[in-house]
């Protein structure tokens, strides 16, 4: 899938069968509208958003084969502030806290580190967001698109979990964005998360704007479901972090 959603193939966008039997489409690798394990090819969805309501053009990121650095994306000063937070909370010997990396991977390291702190995160200056909160769940989706926009597909991939998106190979996941130049996500009001079978689920409403390499723009609307395993005996620190569980997106109508 190329635009953004989470499929493969197809010149631009792939529609996916949404959970429960409905169907949807996503920009070529946005994360399509289907259970994470489903893939289906389809023609590119036309941009039907009226000019009056169409968002301002997305600022293109780096070339498709180059990861956009955090310094280039947000400016040196903002990137260094992020790096400082990252180095202050990360327990890693060689953390990715460097402005030459994408902002997404730096923010992901901050989120991972704060999750490891558990209850201590609340009193840690660098952990501004409670790792268990709905705000932290929404941040996963923001990082996902931040990584895609920076062409940092490995970081986007791990927002689905350590092993990436179920039922899909990383090579196909990355290939799905071949025609996508830039993306931007707008997150709506997040309803309270809900618990079920030892896990907590948060529904994140989104509107996603994508710019293709040929200059065309697309808009998709829908939602992501983000999940974390509750703090039960045996659950690993990684399982207790929020990760994308499923996505359902479809072309926006004018």
Provide a concise account of the structure shown.
The chain has 254 residues and is an alpha+beta fold. Helix content is 24%, strand content 22%.
Labels describing this entry:
6-stranded antiparallel sheet; 6 helices; alpha+beta; disordered N terminus; Nuclear Transport Factor 2, Chain: A; two-stranded antiparallel ribbon; 254 residues
Question: How is this structure best described in words?
Answer:
There is one protein chain. With 254 residues, the protein is of the alpha+beta class. It has a single domain, classed as Nuclear Transport Factor 2, Chain: A (Roll), CATH 3.10.450.50. Helices cover 24% and strands 22% of the residues. The protein is built from 6 helices and 8 strands; from the N terminus they run E-E-E-H-H-H-H-H-H-E-E-E-E-E. Strands 3, 4, 5, 6, 7 and 8 form a 6-stranded antiparallel β-sheet that branches. A hairpin with a 4-residue loop joins strand 6 (199-212) and strand 7. The relative contact order is 0.20. Mean pLDDT is 80; it is low at 1-26, 31-57 and 60-64.
